[in-house]
Predict the structure.
Amino acid sequence: MQSITFSTERLSVQNVFAPKTRVHRTRTAVVRPSAMAKDNSVTYSRSELQGSGGTQTQTEEGSSEGSSKYKFSLQPSAGSVRYNTGYVAEDAKVSLTEDGYYKLKDDELKGINPFEKTKLAKDALASLKWGNDLGPMATKAKEDFTAMYEEDKGQVDLRTKYIGLFHRPKTTYGRFMMRLRQHNGIITAKQMRYLGEVIQSYGEDGCADITTRQNIQLRGVVLPDVPEMFENFTKLGLTTTQSGMDNVRNLVGSPIAGIDPLEIVDTRPYCKMINDFLTDEDRGHKEVTNLPRKFNIAVIGSHDLYEHPHINDLAFMPAEKDGVFGFNVEVGGFFSAIRVDGAIPLGAFVPPEQLIPITHAILTTFRDYGARKNRQKTRLMYLIEEMGMDKFRAEIEKRMIGGSGIKSLAEEGKSLVNPKWERRTYFGAHKQTDGNNFVGMNVPVGRIFADDMLALAHLAETYGDGDIRMTVEQNVILSGVPDAKLAELMAQPLLSKDKFDTAPGHLTAHVVSCPGSQFCGFGQIETKQTAKEMSEHLESTLDMPKEVRIHWTGCPNTCGQVQVADLGFLGTQVKGPNGPEPAVDIFMGGTIGHDSVLANCIKKKVAVRELRPVVEALLIEHFGATYKKAVREPVAV
């Protein structure tokens, strides 16, 4: 097959560094010219969210129609999802200012953490989203980044996170990671192509990561480019609004929503609806941005629980009550450096029209009463424990009655999720509801480069429906592939064994990794390359009868989610013969799905250079691995 030159009508990226030669990467060959991708977005009015739910009509995004009998019931309209009540409790820790912002009261300032002090000094969205501070910052950064940075480090290192920009002065001084919001993890080929071109323009400094929340993080971005990038994002339907700091992070849904023949409900329209509310349709939402800490939400669409509901602050589980479809509510799941906990039932059922009111009620309760002192004890679960579940639930119900006019918060309904369901693989080719196919690919440790992004965009347009879907395991799915094009897609170089394999081995299929010390100042070890090399070694050394989920995280903040892994490695340091050296704490026994269990630490401070035989022994003893015939003993490290 012949490679082609990517010819696109690209949106320009001004003031970027000239591309450098990538000596460690080769262009991924693809065939056939690309076509323009579609844009099928819809919005919903506030009156519909407070009403009876409308008629049972399918109105989800995209062209694929799911097989579930529970169709999205809210009619699209010319209106928008703008839900806000202005309510703040009298005994809340925050108060509403004249200009509509929520700030800590004077008598709540004692002992607050440094993040709260920086937030208090200047509202991030007022400065960077609604104000005019970003443009001058970009101009100053182009002239002298250090001078601009020294002028207000809090603005650069913290407030920019509210618009999706992350500066890591210890590791990538002067360059930013940019985090996108992609509700339900779906991006179009046209959007991916633009992002690939942006990364390409940064040469060796540019790459991207797929995250454990189904979105993309761009790396190598320089501040002078950002204003124009944001203009182009608006044209393309992309956004970074409220994707970091003390906001609700990316909305997670089923990666095969709307195309899964066995799904319970298509999560795409629900994720879009909630996302539009949270960001006030990309305007920025004053009522739910000054939270005590970050907040994660998942909408569950299948029996497979691809979305990992138990590790979210708020999870909507499909259910039925008195013949009405809706969601049972679970709350409080989280990871932190000092504690991890699974979500617990709120004991409540909400029909679709109450999804936004209950989300608003939970978030504003968290905003009003959540702790703001010890940063490690500010997640939602701490507030639930402080208030007690009964009082917490009553507060949610009170706010919903006052804000949306409901009479009461219903008790939990009958779950529609089959607890005995065995999770299906999404790797390889699978039939969709419409007779087409989706194809799941393993992206090694979630790292993608410009060539990969451009190739994905081309393949999605040429062979599929133009959508690129991401999973919480940092993998990719292409949807809408006709039978007639399937073989040719599967033969593409990007889908080869040494690239994005569609049939990965049992020890590489579900390797998850945070960025580690390469890009994160908190990272104690380099994770992604170490994880990739380890999985390749294990595949070449062991025969494995089943998949083993292996997670790597660089520090105790556990962004790599080692506690849900079969085997997890948490970065630390150990005293070696020549001083401190990279090491890991080993976790084992985490499970996902219906009987989810968080892993326990079984071994501390194992030097990375001594890790291979230790992992081999664990896999043999606990997971049924055996050495390949050509390997008779552990490989020396």
In short: Residues 397 and 409 are 6 Å apart (CA to CA). The chain has 15 helices and 26 strands.
